[in-house]
## 1
Amino acid sequence: PHGSEKAKAFVNAFLKRSMPKMKDEAIQDILNRKAVVLEHYYKKKTKQKRKKTKGFTAKQRREMRLFEIEPEQQRYAIFLPLHELWKQYIRDLCHGLKPDAQPHMIQSKLLKADLHGAIVTVTKSKCPSYVGITGIILQEFKHVFKIITKEDKLKVVPKLNNVFSLEIDGFISYIYGSKFQLRASERSAKKFKLKGTIDL
C-alpha cells in the first residue's frame, strides 16, 4: 500500500540522519537482523577562552603614584579618626582587652591584625636616628612602615633592625621588625613562633 511505502521511506531517511557514519547496506542489514540503537551526535562547541584581566605591574604603580600620599594630606590630625577606628577594631578582635586576658593570646592576635591606624614608637634600632619616632601607621609594606608623626612629617621606617612598641588600653606589645617582614595580607595566615630572645 501507498502508506507503507511512505513509512518505509521515512524510516530509511530517519535512520540515515541518525546514523550518518553508516552506509545504506549496513543500515539495511541491521534492520533485517536485529534491533536498531540510535545514536545522537553532539556538535562540539568551541569554548571561548576567558581573557584574564591583568593588573598593574609594580613599575606601572610607581609611575602612576598610586601609593603616594599628597603633601597637603600629610597631617596627623586627619588620621586621628583612623586611629580611633583601629582601637575599636582591636577591642572587638581581642574581646574587649579585659585585665584578666592572657597577654600571649592578645600578642598573637595583634601580630596577625591589620596595623593601618595603629600608633607605634620605634624603641630600639641599629640606626639611632630612628629611635623615638612615634606616629600613626598609614601604610604597611613588606619591608617598611609609612608613619605620620605629630609634627605632620611622613617617615618611612624600615622594619629590618628596628623594634616597635604598640600600646592600646594599657597593653604594650613589641614588634621585632626583622621577624615581621611580611605584607599585611600574608601575616593573617602566618604562624608566629614564640622565642625566648630575639636580636635586632
## 2
Amino acid sequence: PLSLLSVSSGDTSVLAGLYGPAEAKISKELPDRAALEVLLRPKVGLPGVLERSREQLLRQTCEAVVLGVLHPRTAISLVLQVLSDAGSLLSCCLNAACMALLDAGLPLSTLFCGVTCALQPDGTILLDPTARQEQEARAILTFAIASSERKVLMATTKGSCSVEEMQQCLAAAQRAANTIFQFYRDSVRRRYSKS
C-alpha cells in the first residue's frame, strides 16, 4: 500500500490502507479520471447494508476532493478496517480516509474531516458522541467538512431534527473542524520532521 495508518477518535479506531494509482480493470476504467473504490470492513463478520451505504458516502466525499483527472484510467482503492467502534464511527472513517489520501501524496483540491453530532432529547448538541450517547440521541448527524471555506461535502442524518437544529449542529461541526485540521497539520509536520 501507498499508505497505511490508523486513526483513533476517543475509543473508536480505524485502520486505513490506500492502494494505487494502479492499472484499472477494463470494466472499472474511467477515460477521464481515476476510479476510486472504498471498502469498509467491520470489526467482525462480513460487510452488510450499513457498511455499503457508508462506503458510498465515503466514496462521494473522497471523489469530491481527489484530483483524479491527473491519473486517468487508473484505480485507487481505499480500505478501511474497523478496529473498534465506540461511537462516531463514520466521522472517524472520514478522518482516516483523508489522512490516508494525504499520506499517499495524492493531489487533493481540499482536505476534509468528519464530525458527528448527537442531538439529545433536550436539544443539546454533543460532538463526537459515544455509542451509548448515540443510542440515547434523538438524531445523529455526520458532516464531511472541507478545509476550504468549511464547505459541507457530505451530510447524513439518522433520526429527526428541525432545520434550525440541523443548522446549529452544522455550525458546531464547522467549529470543531478547525481543531481537526490543526491536528492534521501537526501530524503531517511530525511525520516529515522525523524523516
## 3
Amino acid sequence: SSTMSLSEAEVQSARGAWEKIYVDAEDNGTTVLVRMFTEHPDTKSYFTHFKGMDSAEEMKQSDQVRGHGKKVFSAINDMVQHLDNSEAFLGVVNPLGKKHATQLKIDPKNFRIICDIILQVMEEKFGGDCKASFEKVTNEICTHLNNVYKEAGW
C-alpha cells in the first residue's frame, strides 16, 4: 500500500536525474539557496545569520549557507533513496516537516519555492529531460510536507 504515485520506471529515472545534481551537493545546494534568498528575500528572515548578507557573492562564500545547502540536499537525497518504500520515505519526511512546522515555523510555501529552484538548476545544467524526470518527486515531497503541516495544525 504505497502512498507514492511513482512507477518503478519513474523512480529509476528520477534517481538518475538526482544523481547528476547530487554529485556536487554542496555547490549545487548553495546555488539553490543563494537563488532563493536573492529572488525571495523574505526567506532570509528565517535564518538570522544570513539576514545581513546582501550580495549573492557574500552568500556563496558563507560557510553557513554552504552548510545548509548541503543539509537540504542530504535530506532530499534520503527521500530519493526511499521513493519505492513509502514507510521509509515518510520516516524521513515526517520528522523534517514537523521540525519546520513546529520549531522553525517555516511557511510551507517555501518548500515549493526551493523545489522549483532545484528543477530550474537541473534544467539549466542537465536539460529539460532531467528536470522532467524529477518534477514528480518534488510534487511528492511538497504534498507530503504539506500534509505534515496540516497535521501539525498549521
## 4
Amino acid sequence: HPFAKIRVDDCGKTKGCFRYGKPGCNAETCDYFLSYRRIGADVEFELSADTEGWVAVGFSSDKKMGGDDVMACVHDDNGRVRIQHFYNVGQWAKEIQRNPARDEEGVFENNRVTCRFKRPVYVPREETIVDLHLSWYYLFAWGPAIQGSITRHDIDSPPVSEHVVSIYKYEDIFMPSAAYQTFSSPFCLLLIVALTFYLLMGTP
C-alpha cells in the first residue's frame, strides 16, 4: 500500500511534533520533522528529512551524543528505506541487531527520506533500548548514506529538544534552522558594537 502522507494538522493535538527548518514548514518542507503518538502499548514515530541518506531520532539522558538509543531510517542502494536500530558509543553509532521497530514503512521521494514505525513503550531491561515511558532528550539527526550505511550527520551540532520529552504530552515544537536563527545573545550584540566602535575609531 502507498505511504500515507504525514499529517501536520494533528501536531500538538493527537500527536507530538518537532519541526526544524524554515518557519511554517511541514513534514515535506522542514529540514527535519519528527512526530510521536501513543497507540495502545506502542509509540508510533514518523520521521522525515531533506536528505538522500538517513534520518534518525536518538533518545538521550543528556543533550550530548553517547550512550543513546537511536532509531534510523536508512535509504539503501535498492531504493528501499529500512528502519535500523543503533546505539551511540561516544561519537560512533553501532548497529544493534535487536530492533524494537515494527509496522515499518518508508519511502524515498522528492529527495527526502520519510518513514513511519512503531516501537513498544515498555521494554525488558536492556541497555541499548530505552523505556519510552520515561522522558528523554530527543536528538535529531540526518545525513548521507553510503551503500545503505549511515555516515556522519549533515550539520556539526544537530538539533536537540530543549527539554526532556514525554510521550504523554503532545507538543508542537518549531526550531528555526541555522539559516533562520537570529542572534539574540546580548553578549554577541555587545561584541558587534565594540568591534564596530573599534573599527570606526581606527588606530591612533
